[in-house]
Design a protein that fits this description.
- With about 550 residues, this protein is α/β, with parallel strands linked by helices.
- It has 4 domains: about 200 residues, DhaL domain (Serine Threonine Protein Phosphatase 5, Tetratricopeptide repeat, Alpha Horseshoe); about 80 residues, Alpha-Beta Plaits (2-Layer Sandwich); about 110 residues, Rossmann fold (3-Layer(aba) Sandwich); about 100 residues.
- Helix content is about 45%, strand content about 20%.
- It contains 22 helices and 16 strands.
- The strands form 4 sheets. A 6-stranded mixed beta sheet has the order 13-12-9-16-14-15, with helices on both faces.
- Helix 17 packs across helix 18.
- It starts with a helix and ends with a strand.
- About 50% of the residues are buried.
Length: about 550
Amino acid sequence: MTITGKLLRDALISGANNIYNQKQEVDELNVFPVPDGDTGTNMSMTIKNAVAELENTSDSATAGEVAKKAASAMLRGARGNSGVILSLLFRGLSKGLSGKETASASDLSAALKIGVDAAYKSVMKPTEGTILTVSREAWENTAALAKENVSAAEFIEEYIIEAKRSLERTPELLPALKKAGVVDAGGMGLIVILEGMLKVLSGGAMIAANDAVKPQTPAAAAAAEQVPMYSYNAEFVIEKDGAARDTTALCAYLETICGNASVVDDDGIIKIHVHTNNPGKALEEGLKFGQLDNVKIENMRKAQGGVIKADKAAQRNKKAPAEITKDTGFAAVAAGAGVEALFKDLGVDQVIRGGQTMNPSTEDLLEAIEQTPARNVFVLPNNKNIIMAAEQAAGLTDRNVCVLQTRTIPQGISAMMNYDPDGDFKTNRAAMTEAIDRVGSGQITFAVRDSEFDGHKIKQGDILAMDNGKIVFTEKDLEKALVKLTKRLIKSSSSYITVLYGADVPEADANEAFDALRSKVSDDIDIVLVNGGQPVYYYIISVE
C-alpha cells in the first residue's frame, strides 16, 4: 500500500496533535533542572504551524504537494534546535516526494535519508545521542526493508521500532543523559509524531488535540470562504540560470507577499503559481533565478465579482520588507523591558521578544531581519537554542546576514559595545565575534524539579548559579548567590560588571544585594545595576 496525499495530510495532522498532547512529557526529559525544558513545546509548535494549511488542503492533493506544504510551513514555524532539525527532516520528505502522486516504502526511505543528511549538515559539530542519532539509525536499520515488498505503513511501523531502540541507547552516547537518567527529548518527540502518523496510516482514526477548538458552524465556515484577499492570480515559468540558487529562498519570499504560493522546481525550470496584490514583485523576484516565460496574470476580483477565497497564509498580515536606508543594522533576541531598552540604546534596530522558554520561530526572526532597514544585518540570538533558527532565517532573505554566535544576553551586549560604525562589515564581524569570547556570563535562576547533575544534589526551588551556561553551585539565599557567582566570574583583567535584575526581584532587594556585591568587589572595577525585567533569571551578570 502506498500513501496518498489525503492519507499523508491526515497523518501529519494526527502526528502534530499527538506531540501537542504529549509535549509536557517530552519537555520533562530535559537534562537540566533549569526552566528551559521546552523541546516538546518547540517541536509541537513547529509542526503545528503546518496544521492550518494542511487542514485547508484538498483531498485531491498529491503526496508530494502535501509534503511540500507541510515542510514549507514547518520551516517558517521552526523553534529551537529541535524544531529546526524536525523541519529539516520534513524538508527531506518534501524533496524526496516531489512530483509523486503517492508515497511507497522506498520513496519514504529515500526521502528520510535526504532529511537526515540535511539535519546533520545544519549542525557544525553534530552531537550523537540526540534526535540526529535516532533519525539516522532508524533509517540505516530500515533501508533494506524499504526495498522489499512492504507497505508504506509497515515501513513506518518498523522505522518507529528502530527509532525506539536507538532512543534507548542515547544515554550510552551522551553522558549528560545517563547522569540525569533520561533519554533524549528530541528523539522522543520525533517518535511521538511518527506514532501519531502511524495511527492514521494503519487505518485508525486521526488523533485529536486534547483542547481542540470546536469546529466552525457552516455559516462561519462559509463566511471565512468569502473574504476578499488578493486581486491577481499569477502564473509563470522561470528558465533557471546555471548558477541559480536553491528555491527555498524564493518560496519563503513569495509566501511573505502572496497567498496560495506554489513553487515547483523541475530541473531546468521553476513553475510559479501565486495569488497576490502585487504580481510585479513576484516577477521581479523570479528574475533573480533566471529568464521568465509563459507569464499569465488574471484579475480575480473581476472574474469572481470582487469576492475570492481567503488564503490561510494571507491571514498572517505580513509586513513588507523595510526599505534599505543604511549599510549595517542589527536584530537581537531579548526578553524584559529593561533588556530590550538596553539593546535599543546600543543601536539594535529590531528586538525579537524571546529567549529562555520562549524561542522565536524562523519566521519571527526572518521578519525582524526584513524589517531592519539595512543591507547588512547582524543577528544576535543571545541563546544557544535560537542560533539554528536564526541561521535558517538568514538563508531565506536576500540581505547579507551574519548570525553572531551569542549564547547569552551578556555576549550580545558585549558584541554591540564592540561595534565600530566606521569599520566595514568584515572587520566588525571579527571584532564582535572576538568580544563574545571575552565576556563572562552568569545567570541565577531556580530548579524546576529535584535532580542530580554533575555531582550536585538539586531540590526543586533551589537557587541555581550558572557560569556561562554550566551549573556551578546551588544556594538558598539569592543575595549570597549573586555575590558568590560574580566573584567567580571576575578575572585579573576584568574592569566592568553589569548586573541585570529580573522581573521576580523587588527593586529594594536588588539594591540591597547590589550593595553587598559592591562591598566585595575591587574599586578598580566599574559596576552598574540595571532593571532588566527579564523572566526566568533572577540575575544576569556580565563581566568584562
